[in-house]
Amino acid sequence: MSALHATFLELGTGRQVGARQLLLRAGEVAQRIYLIEQGCARLYLIDAQGRETSTQFFFEGEVVSSLESFLTGRPSALHLVTMEACRLRVLEGAAIKARAKTDPALQADLQVLTQQRLIHYANLYTSAIADSPTQRYLALQATHQQRLERIPLHILAAYLGVSAVHLSRIRRKLKETAPSRTL
């Protein structure tokens, strides 16, 4: 068990929340970090035209927060919301930061978490530039098929940078070209 997960078990509190519950609003400073025990959540932003775009999805066993805000103390540019009813472990920022000062293993786990998030965003940015929406969808399908089934179509479409209608066309076209594949 990682030091981070052990800290969640020791210092975290359990919390049940329903689907579509806002855990962090953009403009607020992230004061908590969450371990998803059951359910899923997403980080998203709202652009100047009022459109939501998800930046990342989180599922069982994953740690979520607006990490930049949590680590820097600056207001978050992102909203954090549950997509399904969730069972969470919640760690208060002050508690984990105090523990991390004296626990090198926890410091290392937080650094790994930060590195993973940085790599995810670098890959997301690169893919948005280099790959077509179909290629991005196929890549997600190859690595996260069961998770994709839990993400509403309109949210997945916005994540891929296309309309829900366009994503439906992509899925239909892929189904027609590979009838034995389950989409």
TrEMBL record:
Superkingdom as given in the UniProt entry: Bacteria
Stretches assigned to the Cyclic nucleotide-binding domain: 1-92
Gene3D superfamilies: Jelly Rolls
One Pfam family cited in the UniProt record for this chain: cNMP_binding
Entries under CDD domains matching the protein: CAP_ED (cd00038)
Record protein name field: CRP-like cAMP-binding protein
